[in-house]
Amino acid sequence: MRAFFAMLARDIHVARRNLLPMLVQTLFQPMLFVVVFGRIMTGSGLMRQEYKSLLLPGIVAISMIFSGIMGVAMPLIADFQYTREIEDRLLAPLAPGWLAIEKVVAGMLQALIAGAVVIPTAWVVMGSGIELSFSRPLLLLAVALLGALLAAGLGLVLGCSVSQQFVGLMFSLVLAPMFFLGCTYYPWSALTSFPILQKAVLINPVVYASEGLRAALTPHVAHLPVLGLLVALVFFDAALLYLGLQRFDRKAIG
Amino acid sequence: MSVDIQIRDLVKVYRSAPPAGAMGGGARPGPLPTRGRRRRPKIEVTALAGISLDVPKGSMFGLLGPNGAGKTTTIGILTTRVRATSGEAFVGGLSVAAQPQEVKRQIGVVPQRPNLDLALTAREILVFHGAYFGLPRATIRQRADELLERFQLTARAGDMVRGFSGGMAQRLSIARALMHDPQVLFLDEPSAGLDPQTRVLLWNLVRAEHQRGKTVLVTTHYMEEADALCDRIAIVDHGRIIAHGTPAELKAQVPGGYVLRLRFDRVEESLVERLRSVTGVREVRRDGGEAVDGDAATEDASTGWLDVYADRGGPLVPELLACAVSQGLELRDLHIAEPSLENLFLHHTGRSLRE
What we know:
The complex is a heterodimer. By secondary structure, chain A is mostly helical. Chain A contains 10 helices and no strands. In chain A, helix 3 (51-83) packs across helix 9 (205-217).
Protein backbone atom coordinates (compact mmCIF):
# COMPACT_ATOMS: atom_id res chain seq x y z
CA MET A 1 0.00 0.00 0.00
CA ARG A 2 2.91 2.36 0.63
CA ALA A 3 3.91 1.90 -2.98
CA PHE A 4 0.39 2.86 -4.05
CA PHE A 5 0.48 6.11 -2.12
CA ALA A 6 4.01 6.84 -3.31
CA MET A 7 2.74 6.59 -6.89
CA LEU A 8 -0.20 8.83 -6.07
CA ALA A 9 2.19 11.26 -4.40
CA ARG A 10 4.28 11.28 -7.55
CA ASP A 11 1.30 12.17 -9.72
CA ILE A 12 0.17 14.89 -7.32
CA HIS A 13 3.71 16.25 -7.14
CA VAL A 14 3.95 16.39 -10.94
CA ALA A 15 0.46 17.87 -11.30
CA ARG A 16 1.26 20.57 -8.76
CA ARG A 17 4.39 21.45 -10.67
CA ASN A 18 2.29 21.89 -13.82
CA LEU A 19 -0.77 23.32 -12.08
CA LEU A 20 -1.20 26.48 -14.12
CA PRO A 21 -0.75 24.99 -17.60
CA MET A 22 -2.94 22.10 -16.55
CA LEU A 23 -5.76 24.37 -15.41
CA VAL A 24 -5.51 26.54 -18.50
CA GLN A 25 -5.49 23.47 -20.73
CA THR A 26 -8.67 22.01 -19.27
CA LEU A 27 -10.55 25.20 -18.45
CA PHE A 28 -9.77 27.64 -21.21
CA GLN A 29 -12.09 26.20 -23.82
CA PRO A 30 -15.07 25.70 -21.54
CA MET A 31 -14.59 29.24 -20.33
CA LEU A 32 -14.69 30.59 -23.89
CA PHE A 33 -17.96 28.79 -24.23
CA VAL A 34 -19.20 30.37 -21.04
CA VAL A 35 -18.25 33.81 -22.29
CA VAL A 36 -19.84 33.38 -25.71
CA PHE A 37 -23.02 31.56 -24.78
CA GLY A 38 -23.42 32.40 -21.12
CA ARG A 39 -22.58 36.06 -21.46
CA ILE A 40 -22.63 37.42 -25.02
CA MET A 41 -25.56 35.43 -26.41
CA THR A 42 -27.68 35.88 -23.33
CA GLY A 43 -26.59 39.48 -22.77
CA SER A 44 -27.47 40.46 -26.33
CA GLY A 45 -30.90 38.92 -26.02
CA LEU A 46 -30.26 36.25 -28.67
CA MET A 47 -30.73 33.65 -25.95
CA ARG A 48 -32.85 33.75 -22.86
CA GLN A 49 -31.37 34.40 -19.43
CA GLU A 50 -32.52 30.95 -18.27
CA TYR A 51 -30.01 29.40 -20.60
CA LYS A 52 -27.26 30.28 -18.13
CA SER A 53 -28.62 27.85 -15.59
CA LEU A 54 -28.93 25.15 -18.25
CA LEU A 55 -25.42 25.70 -19.49
CA LEU A 56 -23.49 25.80 -16.23
CA PRO A 57 -23.91 22.14 -15.15
CA GLY A 58 -23.05 21.06 -18.69
CA ILE A 59 -19.88 23.14 -18.68
CA VAL A 60 -18.93 21.63 -15.33
CA ALA A 61 -19.45 18.15 -16.78
CA ILE A 62 -17.33 18.93 -19.85
CA SER A 63 -14.52 20.35 -17.74
CA MET A 64 -14.52 17.36 -15.41
CA ILE A 65 -14.57 14.75 -18.16
CA PHE A 66 -12.01 16.61 -20.20
CA SER A 67 -9.57 17.02 -17.31
CA GLY A 68 -9.98 13.39 -16.32
CA ILE A 69 -9.16 12.31 -19.84
CA MET A 70 -6.26 14.74 -20.15
CA GLY A 71 -4.96 13.66 -16.77
CA VAL A 72 -5.12 9.92 -17.37
CA ALA A 73 -5.26 9.17 -21.09
CA MET A 74 -2.65 11.55 -22.42
CA PRO A 75 0.16 10.54 -20.02
CA LEU A 76 -0.68 6.87 -20.54
CA ILE A 77 -0.60 7.17 -24.31
CA ALA A 78 2.79 8.88 -24.18
CA ASP A 79 4.09 6.48 -21.54
CA PHE A 80 3.13 3.28 -23.24
CA GLN A 81 4.21 4.29 -26.66
CA TYR A 82 6.98 6.76 -26.33
CA THR A 83 8.61 7.79 -23.07
CA ARG A 84 8.14 4.46 -21.23
CA GLU A 85 8.36 6.49 -18.04
CA ILE A 86 5.75 4.31 -16.43
CA GLU A 87 8.13 1.35 -16.46
CA ASP A 88 9.76 2.39 -13.21
CA ARG A 89 6.39 1.95 -11.52
CA LEU A 90 5.63 -1.28 -13.35
CA LEU A 91 8.83 -2.63 -11.84
CA ALA A 92 7.73 -1.70 -8.33
CA PRO A 93 6.64 -4.67 -6.22
CA LEU A 94 2.94 -4.08 -6.80
CA ALA A 95 0.53 -5.75 -9.23
CA PRO A 96 0.15 -3.58 -12.36
CA GLY A 97 -3.60 -3.28 -11.72
CA TRP A 98 -2.87 -1.12 -8.69
CA LEU A 99 -0.96 1.30 -10.84
CA ALA A 100 -4.01 1.59 -13.08
CA ILE A 101 -6.20 2.23 -10.04
CA GLU A 102 -3.73 4.84 -8.82
CA LYS A 103 -3.97 6.57 -12.20
CA VAL A 104 -7.76 6.53 -11.89
CA VAL A 105 -7.63 8.05 -8.40
CA ALA A 106 -5.25 10.76 -9.62
CA GLY A 107 -7.56 11.44 -12.57
CA MET A 108 -10.56 11.67 -10.25
CA LEU A 109 -8.75 14.24 -8.13
CA GLN A 110 -8.00 16.30 -11.21
CA ALA A 111 -11.60 16.09 -12.39
CA LEU A 112 -12.93 17.12 -8.98
CA ILE A 113 -10.53 20.06 -8.83
CA ALA A 114 -11.56 21.11 -12.34
CA GLY A 115 -15.21 20.96 -11.34
CA ALA A 116 -14.58 22.88 -8.14
CA VAL A 117 -12.78 25.63 -10.07
CA VAL A 118 -15.29 25.85 -12.92
CA ILE A 119 -18.43 26.30 -10.82
CA PRO A 120 -17.45 29.61 -9.20
CA THR A 121 -15.56 30.88 -12.25
CA ALA A 122 -18.43 30.24 -14.63
CA TRP A 123 -20.82 31.68 -12.13
CA VAL A 124 -18.86 34.93 -11.95
CA VAL A 125 -18.33 35.13 -15.71
CA MET A 126 -21.98 34.60 -16.57
CA GLY A 127 -23.08 37.34 -14.21
CA SER A 128 -26.54 37.76 -12.75
CA GLY A 129 -29.55 35.65 -13.52
CA ILE A 130 -28.09 32.27 -12.71
CA GLU A 131 -29.95 30.10 -10.28
CA LEU A 132 -27.67 27.62 -8.59
CA SER A 133 -28.83 25.64 -5.62
CA PHE A 134 -26.72 23.75 -3.13
CA SER A 135 -29.69 22.31 -1.32
CA ARG A 136 -28.85 18.75 -2.31
CA PRO A 137 -25.25 18.39 -1.11
CA LEU A 138 -25.33 14.59 -0.92
CA LEU A 139 -26.56 14.26 -4.47
CA LEU A 140 -23.94 16.77 -5.60
CA LEU A 141 -21.24 14.78 -3.85
CA ALA A 142 -22.44 11.50 -5.33
CA VAL A 143 -22.71 12.91 -8.85
CA ALA A 144 -19.34 14.63 -8.56
CA LEU A 145 -17.60 11.45 -7.42
CA LEU A 146 -19.32 9.24 -9.99
CA GLY A 147 -18.67 11.83 -12.69
CA ALA A 148 -15.01 12.05 -11.72
CA LEU A 149 -14.73 8.28 -11.83
CA LEU A 150 -16.41 8.33 -15.22
CA ALA A 151 -13.84 10.85 -16.43
CA ALA A 152 -10.89 8.88 -15.11
CA GLY A 153 -12.32 5.56 -16.32
CA LEU A 154 -12.77 6.98 -19.81
CA GLY A 155 -9.22 8.26 -19.57
CA LEU A 156 -7.93 4.82 -18.62
CA VAL A 157 -9.75 3.06 -21.45
CA LEU A 158 -8.72 5.64 -24.06
CA GLY A 159 -5.19 5.82 -22.71
CA CYS A 160 -4.77 2.08 -23.13
CA SER A 161 -6.52 1.89 -26.51
CA VAL A 162 -5.50 4.87 -28.59
CA SER A 163 -2.05 5.11 -30.07
CA GLN A 164 -0.14 8.34 -30.38
CA GLN A 165 -0.84 8.92 -34.05
CA PHE A 166 -4.59 8.72 -33.49
CA VAL A 167 -4.82 11.21 -30.65
CA GLY A 168 -6.17 13.84 -33.04
CA LEU A 169 -8.85 11.43 -34.21
CA MET A 170 -9.68 10.61 -30.60
CA PHE A 171 -10.51 14.27 -30.03
CA SER A 172 -12.57 14.73 -33.16
CA LEU A 173 -14.27 11.34 -33.37
CA VAL A 174 -14.71 10.36 -29.74
CA LEU A 175 -14.53 13.36 -27.46
CA ALA A 176 -16.26 15.97 -29.62
CA PRO A 177 -19.40 13.84 -30.24
CA MET A 178 -19.43 12.77 -26.61
CA PHE A 179 -19.44 16.38 -25.48
CA PHE A 180 -21.81 17.74 -28.11
CA LEU A 181 -24.26 14.85 -27.79
CA GLY A 182 -23.79 14.62 -24.04
CA CYS A 183 -26.62 16.98 -23.13
CA THR A 184 -24.00 19.49 -22.04
CA TYR A 185 -25.17 22.58 -23.94
CA TYR A 186 -28.85 21.66 -23.63
CA PRO A 187 -30.86 19.49 -21.25
CA TRP A 188 -31.97 16.03 -22.26
CA SER A 189 -35.58 17.21 -22.20
CA ALA A 190 -34.75 19.57 -25.06
CA LEU A 191 -34.37 16.53 -27.31
CA THR A 192 -38.07 15.65 -27.01
CA SER A 193 -38.66 16.87 -30.54
CA PHE A 194 -35.92 14.53 -31.79
CA PRO A 195 -37.16 11.19 -30.39
CA ILE A 196 -34.60 8.96 -32.10
CA LEU A 197 -31.68 11.11 -31.05
CA GLN A 198 -33.12 11.37 -27.57
CA LYS A 199 -32.97 7.58 -27.23
CA ALA A 200 -29.66 7.25 -28.97
CA VAL A 201 -27.77 9.67 -26.73
CA LEU A 202 -28.53 7.46 -23.74
CA ILE A 203 -25.56 5.29 -24.65
CA ASN A 204 -23.36 8.31 -24.05
CA PRO A 205 -22.22 8.34 -20.41
CA VAL A 206 -21.58 12.08 -20.49
CA VAL A 207 -25.38 12.53 -20.63
CA TYR A 208 -25.68 11.19 -17.10
CA ALA A 209 -22.89 13.36 -15.78
CA SER A 210 -24.39 16.58 -17.12
CA GLU A 211 -27.95 15.62 -16.24
CA GLY A 212 -26.76 14.53 -12.82
CA LEU A 213 -25.10 17.86 -12.24
CA ARG A 214 -28.30 19.55 -13.37
CA ALA A 215 -30.28 17.51 -10.88
CA ALA A 216 -27.84 18.52 -8.13
CA LEU A 217 -27.12 22.17 -9.00
CA THR A 218 -30.19 23.39 -10.87
CA PRO A 219 -33.00 21.09 -9.73
CA HIS A 220 -35.65 23.44 -11.11
CA VAL A 221 -34.56 22.57 -14.66
CA ALA A 222 -36.11 19.40 -16.07
CA HIS A 223 -33.64 16.51 -15.80
CA LEU A 224 -33.51 12.73 -15.97
CA PRO A 225 -34.83 10.90 -12.89
CA VAL A 226 -32.19 10.95 -10.19
CA LEU A 227 -32.24 7.25 -9.42
CA GLY A 228 -31.99 6.32 -13.07
CA LEU A 229 -29.02 8.52 -13.77
CA LEU A 230 -27.21 7.37 -10.65
CA VAL A 231 -27.68 3.76 -11.68
CA ALA A 232 -26.47 4.60 -15.18
CA LEU A 233 -23.39 6.36 -13.81
CA VAL A 234 -22.54 3.42 -11.57
CA PHE A 235 -23.00 1.07 -14.50
CA PHE A 236 -20.77 3.05 -16.85
CA ASP A 237 -18.16 3.58 -14.15
CA ALA A 238 -17.96 -0.13 -13.42
CA ALA A 239 -17.87 -1.07 -17.09
CA LEU A 240 -15.15 1.45 -17.96
CA LEU A 241 -13.07 0.52 -14.95
CA TYR A 242 -13.29 -3.17 -15.78
CA LEU A 243 -12.44 -2.62 -19.42
CA GLY A 244 -9.69 -0.16 -18.55
CA LEU A 245 -8.03 -2.51 -16.06
CA GLN A 246 -8.07 -5.32 -18.58
CA ARG A 247 -6.55 -3.16 -21.28
CA PHE A 248 -3.99 -1.76 -18.89
CA ASP A 249 -2.88 -5.23 -17.93
CA ARG A 250 -2.48 -6.19 -21.54
CA LYS A 251 -0.46 -3.05 -22.25
CA ALA A 252 1.66 -3.39 -19.13
CA ILE A 253 2.83 -6.94 -19.69
CA GLY A 254 3.94 -7.94 -23.16
CA MET B 1 24.04 -12.79 -0.36
CA SER B 2 23.40 -12.87 -4.04
CA VAL B 3 20.97 -14.93 -6.04
CA ASP B 4 21.09 -16.91 -9.22
CA ILE B 5 18.93 -17.02 -12.33
CA GLN B 6 17.57 -20.11 -14.01
CA ILE B 7 15.83 -20.23 -17.35
CA ARG B 8 14.17 -23.37 -18.69
CA ASP B 9 12.98 -23.72 -22.29
CA LEU B 10 11.74 -20.17 -22.63
CA VAL B 11 9.69 -19.54 -25.73
CA LYS B 12 8.21 -16.22 -26.68
CA VAL B 13 6.07 -15.65 -29.72
CA TYR B 14 4.74 -12.13 -30.19
CA ARG B 15 1.34 -12.13 -31.82
CA SER B 16 1.11 -8.38 -31.99
CA ALA B 17 3.90 -5.90 -32.52
CA PRO B 18 6.58 -6.55 -29.90
CA PRO B 19 6.98 -3.81 -27.27
CA ALA B 20 9.26 -0.97 -28.20
CA GLY B 21 12.77 -1.77 -27.10
CA ALA B 22 12.43 -5.49 -27.59
CA MET B 23 13.28 -6.82 -31.00
CA GLY B 24 15.73 -4.23 -32.22
CA GLY B 25 16.62 -3.74 -35.85
CA GLY B 26 16.63 -7.42 -36.63
CA ALA B 27 13.02 -8.30 -35.92
CA ARG B 28 12.02 -11.15 -38.14
CA PRO B 29 8.33 -11.23 -38.83
CA GLY B 30 7.12 -14.71 -39.55
CA PRO B 31 5.42 -15.59 -42.80
CA LEU B 32 2.79 -12.97 -43.41
CA PRO B 33 -0.49 -14.26 -44.79
CA THR B 34 -1.51 -12.56 -47.99
CA ARG B 35 -2.71 -9.10 -47.25
CA GLY B 36 -6.48 -9.40 -47.12
CA ARG B 37 -8.63 -6.34 -47.47
CA ARG B 38 -10.78 -7.21 -44.51
CA ARG B 39 -8.26 -8.49 -42.02
CA ARG B 40 -5.13 -6.93 -40.74
CA PRO B 41 -2.13 -9.08 -41.56
CA LYS B 42 -1.26 -11.12 -38.49
CA ILE B 43 2.18 -10.53 -37.14
CA GLU B 44 3.86 -13.52 -35.59
CA VAL B 45 7.38 -13.10 -34.37
CA THR B 46 9.30 -15.83 -32.60
CA ALA B 47 11.62 -13.90 -30.34
CA LEU B 48 12.74 -16.87 -28.24
CA ALA B 49 12.75 -20.38 -29.63
CA GLY B 50 13.53 -22.28 -26.43
CA ILE B 51 16.27 -20.83 -24.28
CA SER B 52 17.72 -22.54 -21.21
CA LEU B 53 20.36 -20.86 -19.13
CA ASP B 54 21.91 -20.88 -15.68
CA VAL B 55 23.39 -17.69 -14.34
CA PRO B 56 25.40 -18.57 -11.23
CA LYS B 57 25.24 -16.48 -8.06
CA GLY B 58 27.50 -13.47 -8.07
CA SER B 59 28.53 -13.86 -11.68
CA MET B 60 28.86 -11.18 -14.29
CA PHE B 61 26.98 -12.78 -17.11
CA GLY B 62 26.85 -11.50 -20.66
CA LEU B 63 24.14 -12.20 -23.22
CA LEU B 64 25.82 -11.54 -26.51
CA GLY B 65 24.11 -11.45 -29.86
CA PRO B 66 23.03 -9.30 -32.79
CA ASN B 67 19.96 -7.06 -32.73
CA GLY B 68 16.80 -9.10 -32.76
CA ALA B 69 18.46 -12.18 -31.28
CA GLY B 70 16.08 -12.22 -28.31
CA LYS B 71 18.25 -10.58 -25.65
CA THR B 72 15.77 -7.88 -24.68
CA THR B 73 12.89 -10.33 -24.65
CA THR B 74 14.87 -12.59 -22.30
CA ILE B 75 15.47 -9.64 -19.98
CA GLY B 76 11.82 -8.64 -20.34
CA ILE B 77 10.66 -12.06 -19.16
CA LEU B 78 13.15 -12.19 -16.29
CA THR B 79 12.07 -8.75 -15.13
CA THR B 80 8.33 -9.65 -15.20
CA ARG B 81 7.63 -7.20 -18.02
CA VAL B 82 7.01 -9.78 -20.72
CA ARG B 83 4.94 -12.94 -20.36
CA ALA B 84 6.62 -16.03 -21.75
CA THR B 85 4.67 -18.13 -24.23
CA SER B 86 6.04 -21.24 -22.53
CA GLY B 87 8.90 -22.27 -20.31
CA GLU B 88 9.93 -21.09 -16.87
CA ALA B 89 12.26 -18.54 -15.37
CA PHE B 90 13.46 -18.25 -11.78
CA VAL B 91 15.30 -15.50 -9.99
CA GLY B 92 16.78 -16.66 -6.70
CA GLY B 93 14.47 -19.67 -6.80
CA LEU B 94 11.36 -17.48 -7.19
CA SER B 95 9.21 -18.10 -10.23
CA VAL B 96 9.00 -14.97 -12.32
CA ALA B 97 5.53 -15.88 -13.60
CA ALA B 98 4.06 -17.00 -10.27
CA GLN B 99 5.71 -14.58 -7.82
CA PRO B 100 6.37 -11.43 -9.84
CA GLN B 101 6.10 -9.02 -6.90
CA GLU B 102 8.69 -10.95 -4.87
CA VAL B 103 10.96 -11.17 -7.90
CA LYS B 104 10.70 -7.42 -8.47
CA ARG B 105 12.10 -6.79 -5.00
CA GLN B 106 15.19 -8.80 -5.91
CA ILE B 107 15.99 -7.13 -9.20
CA GLY B 108 17.21 -3.80 -10.47
CA VAL B 109 16.65 -3.04 -14.14
CA VAL B 110 18.47 -0.68 -16.47
CA PRO B 111 16.47 -0.69 -19.70
CA GLN B 112 17.78 -0.41 -23.21
CA ARG B 113 15.80 2.73 -23.89
CA PRO B 114 16.09 5.35 -21.18
CA ASN B 115 12.78 5.59 -19.36
CA LEU B 116 13.56 8.15 -16.69
CA ASP B 117 10.58 10.01 -15.30
CA LEU B 118 10.94 13.26 -17.25
CA ALA B 119 8.61 15.14 -14.94
CA LEU B 120 11.02 14.79 -12.02
CA THR B 121 14.46 15.93 -10.97
CA ALA B 122 17.33 13.47 -10.65
CA ARG B 123 17.00 13.36 -6.88
CA GLU B 124 13.22 12.98 -6.99
CA ILE B 125 13.60 10.04 -9.35
CA LEU B 126 15.67 8.21 -6.76
CA VAL B 127 13.46 9.27 -3.86
CA PHE B 128 10.23 8.22 -5.55
CA HIS B 129 11.79 4.96 -6.68
CA GLY B 130 12.69 4.22 -3.07
CA ALA B 131 9.14 5.07 -2.06
CA TYR B 132 7.68 2.74 -4.70
CA PHE B 133 9.61 0.00 -2.94
CA GLY B 134 8.30 1.07 0.44
CA LEU B 135 11.68 1.98 1.92
CA PRO B 136 11.71 4.08 5.09
CA ARG B 137 12.22 7.82 4.57
CA ALA B 138 15.59 7.98 6.30
CA THR B 139 16.95 5.09 4.23
CA ILE B 140 15.70 6.74 1.06
CA ARG B 141 17.39 10.03 1.86
CA GLN B 142 20.66 8.40 2.82
CA ARG B 143 20.77 6.06 -0.17
CA ALA B 144 19.81 8.75 -2.67
CA ASP B 145 22.63 10.99 -1.44
CA GLU B 146 25.08 8.14 -1.52
CA LEU B 147 24.15 7.03 -5.05
CA LEU B 148 24.14 10.57 -6.43
CA GLU B 149 27.63 10.96 -5.03
CA ARG B 150 28.92 7.65 -6.30
CA PHE B 151 27.49 8.23 -9.78
CA GLN B 152 28.80 11.80 -9.91
CA LEU B 153 25.39 13.35 -10.14
CA THR B 154 25.30 15.39 -6.94
CA ALA B 155 25.86 18.66 -8.79
CA ARG B 156 22.82 18.06 -10.98
CA ALA B 157 20.64 16.41 -8.36
CA GLY B 158 18.10 19.23 -8.37
CA ASP B 159 17.80 19.50 -12.16
CA MET B 160 15.03 18.07 -14.25
CA VAL B 161 16.39 15.08 -16.17
CA ARG B 162 15.02 16.36 -19.47
CA GLY B 163 18.29 18.14 -20.16
CA PHE B 164 20.59 15.29 -19.14
CA SER B 165 23.15 13.94 -21.59
CA GLY B 166 23.00 10.30 -22.61
CA GLY B 167 25.79 9.35 -20.21
CA MET B 168 24.21 11.16 -17.28
CA ALA B 169 20.83 9.62 -17.97
CA GLN B 170 22.40 6.19 -18.12
CA ARG B 171 24.23 6.73 -14.83
CA LEU B 172 21.04 7.88 -13.21
CA SER B 173 19.23 4.82 -14.60
CA ILE B 174 21.75 2.57 -12.90
CA ALA B 175 21.59 4.57 -9.66
CA ARG B 176 17.80 4.22 -9.73
CA ALA B 177 18.06 0.47 -10.30
CA LEU B 178 20.27 0.24 -7.20
CA MET B 179 18.01 2.34 -4.95
CA HIS B 180 16.23 -0.64 -3.41
CA ASP B 181 19.49 -2.60 -3.09
CA PRO B 182 18.56 -5.45 -5.42
CA GLN B 183 20.47 -8.71 -5.52
CA VAL B 184 20.45 -8.98 -9.29
CA LEU B 185 21.18 -6.18 -11.71
CA PHE B 186 19.90 -6.38 -15.29
CA LEU B 187 21.47 -4.07 -17.84
CA ASP B 188 20.10 -4.12 -21.37
CA GLU B 189 22.65 -2.76 -23.86
CA PRO B 190 23.95 -0.28 -21.29
CA SER B 191 26.72 1.13 -23.42
CA ALA B 192 24.85 1.54 -26.69
CA GLY B 193 25.21 5.06 -27.98
CA LEU B 194 27.70 6.21 -25.35
CA ASP B 195 31.08 7.73 -26.10
CA PRO B 196 34.16 5.66 -25.15
CA GLN B 197 35.01 7.58 -21.94
CA THR B 198 31.47 7.36 -20.66
CA ARG B 199 31.44 3.70 -21.51
CA VAL B 200 34.55 3.09 -19.43
CA LEU B 201 33.11 5.04 -16.50
CA LEU B 202 29.88 3.10 -16.78
CA TRP B 203 31.59 -0.24 -16.81
CA ASN B 204 33.69 0.67 -13.79
CA LEU B 205 30.48 1.47 -11.92
CA VAL B 206 28.90 -1.80 -12.96
CA ARG B 207 32.00 -3.75 -12.06
CA ALA B 208 32.00 -2.14 -8.63
CA GLU B 209 28.44 -3.35 -8.08
CA HIS B 210 29.46 -6.81 -9.15
CA GLN B 211 32.29 -6.74 -6.64
CA ARG B 212 29.78 -5.86 -3.94
CA GLY B 213 28.38 -9.32 -4.59
CA LYS B 214 25.52 -8.60 -6.94
CA THR B 215 24.71 -10.94 -9.79
CA VAL B 216 24.88 -8.94 -13.01
CA LEU B 217 23.19 -9.92 -16.26
CA VAL B 218 24.11 -7.68 -19.14
CA THR B 219 23.20 -7.80 -22.82
CA THR B 220 25.44 -6.37 -25.49
CA HIS B 221 26.29 -6.72 -29.11
CA TYR B 222 29.83 -5.51 -28.51
CA MET B 223 31.94 -8.66 -28.37
CA GLU B 224 35.03 -6.97 -27.00
CA GLU B 225 32.96 -5.62 -24.16
CA ALA B 226 31.49 -8.98 -23.27
CA ASP B 227 34.91 -10.57 -23.58
CA ALA B 228 36.63 -8.08 -21.31
CA LEU B 229 33.98 -7.71 -18.63
CA CYS B 230 31.93 -10.84 -18.25
CA ASP B 231 33.05 -13.97 -16.48
CA ARG B 232 30.47 -16.01 -18.35
CA ILE B 233 28.86 -15.45 -21.70
CA ALA B 234 25.98 -16.94 -23.65
CA ILE B 235 25.79 -16.19 -27.33
CA VAL B 236 22.25 -15.89 -28.67
CA ASP B 237 21.03 -15.80 -32.22
CA HIS B 238 17.54 -16.11 -33.63
CA GLY B 239 16.11 -16.83 -30.21
CA ARG B 240 18.47 -19.69 -29.42
CA ILE B 241 21.62 -20.03 -27.41
CA ILE B 242 24.33 -21.14 -29.76
CA ALA B 243 27.21 -21.29 -27.29
CA HIS B 244 27.97 -20.54 -23.66
CA GLY B 245 30.86 -20.67 -21.24
CA THR B 246 33.68 -18.46 -20.04
CA PRO B 247 35.21 -16.17 -22.67
CA ALA B 248 38.30 -18.38 -22.77
CA GLU B 249 36.25 -21.56 -23.20
CA LEU B 250 34.24 -19.98 -25.94
CA LYS B 251 37.23 -18.76 -27.86
CA ALA B 252 38.79 -22.22 -27.56
CA GLN B 253 35.74 -23.62 -29.35
CA VAL B 254 36.80 -21.94 -32.59
CA PRO B 255 38.93 -24.40 -34.59
CA GLY B 256 42.44 -22.99 -34.47
CA GLY B 257 41.28 -19.65 -33.15
CA TYR B 258 42.17 -17.47 -36.14
CA VAL B 259 39.91 -16.84 -39.09
CA LEU B 260 41.21 -15.79 -42.49
CA ARG B 261 38.47 -14.58 -44.79
CA LEU B 262 39.53 -14.75 -48.39
CA ARG B 263 37.66 -13.69 -51.48
CA PHE B 264 38.63 -15.01 -54.88
CA ASP B 265 37.38 -14.26 -58.33
CA ARG B 266 35.89 -17.72 -58.17
CA VAL B 267 36.04 -20.69 -55.84
CA GLU B 268 36.52 -24.25 -56.92
CA GLU B 269 36.14 -27.35 -54.82
CA SER B 270 39.72 -28.33 -55.64
CA LEU B 271 40.95 -25.09 -54.06
CA VAL B 272 39.01 -25.83 -50.88
CA GLU B 273 40.58 -29.29 -50.81
CA ARG B 274 44.07 -27.89 -51.21
CA LEU B 275 43.61 -25.25 -48.56
CA ARG B 276 42.40 -27.91 -46.13
CA SER B 277 45.65 -29.77 -46.52
CA VAL B 278 47.79 -26.75 -45.55
CA THR B 279 49.46 -27.28 -42.15
CA GLY B 280 47.73 -25.25 -39.47
CA VAL B 281 44.41 -25.02 -41.30
CA ARG B 282 41.65 -26.68 -39.30
CA GLU B 283 38.60 -25.99 -41.33
CA VAL B 284 37.61 -24.31 -44.58
CA ARG B 285 34.09 -23.07 -45.20
CA ARG B 286 32.54 -21.65 -48.32
CA ASP B 287 30.38 -18.56 -48.46
CA GLY B 288 30.39 -16.45 -45.38
CA GLY B 289 27.75 -13.97 -44.33
CA GLU B 290 28.37 -11.51 -47.12
CA ALA B 291 27.34 -14.09 -49.63
CA VAL B 292 23.74 -13.94 -48.45
CA ASP B 293 23.57 -10.21 -48.92
CA GLY B 294 22.59 -10.68 -52.51
CA ASP B 295 25.21 -8.45 -54.12
CA ALA B 296 26.00 -9.13 -57.72
CA ALA B 297 28.97 -11.36 -56.94
CA THR B 298 26.85 -13.99 -55.23
CA GLU B 299 24.77 -14.46 -58.34
CA ASP B 300 27.69 -16.42 -59.64
CA ALA B 301 28.01 -19.45 -57.40
CA SER B 302 31.64 -19.93 -58.21
CA THR B 303 32.63 -16.50 -56.87
CA GLY B 304 32.78 -15.88 -53.18
CA TRP B 305 34.31 -15.97 -49.81
CA LEU B 306 36.18 -18.69 -48.06
CA ASP B 307 36.53 -18.75 -44.30
CA VAL B 308 39.75 -20.49 -43.30
CA TYR B 309 39.94 -21.45 -39.62
CA ALA B 310 43.56 -21.89 -38.62
CA ASP B 311 45.98 -21.75 -35.71
CA ARG B 312 47.87 -18.79 -37.22
CA GLY B 313 46.95 -15.64 -39.05
CA GLY B 314 49.34 -13.62 -41.19
CA PRO B 315 52.11 -16.24 -41.42
CA LEU B 316 49.72 -18.53 -43.25
CA VAL B 317 48.88 -16.06 -46.01
CA PRO B 318 51.75 -16.80 -48.43
CA GLU B 319 50.96 -20.49 -48.40
CA LEU B 320 47.24 -19.97 -48.93
CA LEU B 321 47.97 -17.56 -51.72
CA ALA B 322 50.34 -20.00 -53.35
CA CYS B 323 47.55 -22.59 -53.47
CA ALA B 324 45.29 -20.13 -55.22
CA VAL B 325 47.90 -18.94 -57.66
CA SER B 326 48.79 -22.47 -58.61
CA GLN B 327 45.18 -22.98 -59.64
CA GLY B 328 45.09 -19.77 -61.59
CA LEU B 329 42.75 -18.00 -59.14
CA GLU B 330 42.97 -14.37 -58.20
CA LEU B 331 42.72 -13.15 -54.59
CA ARG B 332 40.36 -10.17 -54.39
CA ASP B 333 40.07 -9.51 -50.68
CA LEU B 334 41.58 -10.72 -47.43
CA HIS B 335 40.73 -10.25 -43.79
CA ILE B 336 42.52 -11.76 -40.81
CA ALA B 337 40.69 -12.10 -37.47
CA GLU B 338 42.57 -12.79 -34.26
CA PRO B 339 40.97 -15.26 -31.82
CA SER B 340 37.75 -13.59 -30.64
CA LEU B 341 34.13 -14.21 -29.84
CA GLU B 342 33.38 -12.74 -33.23
CA ASN B 343 35.07 -15.77 -34.79
CA LEU B 344 32.94 -18.05 -32.68
CA PHE B 345 29.79 -16.30 -33.83
CA LEU B 346 30.94 -16.58 -37.41
CA HIS B 347 31.76 -20.23 -36.92
CA HIS B 348 28.30 -20.98 -35.56
CA THR B 349 26.18 -18.85 -37.83
CA GLY B 350 28.24 -18.15 -40.91
CA ARG B 351 27.45 -14.49 -40.30
CA SER B 352 29.43 -11.73 -38.73
CA LEU B 353 28.08 -10.12 -35.57
CA ARG B 354 29.02 -6.70 -36.84
CA GLU B 355 26.74 -6.73 -39.83
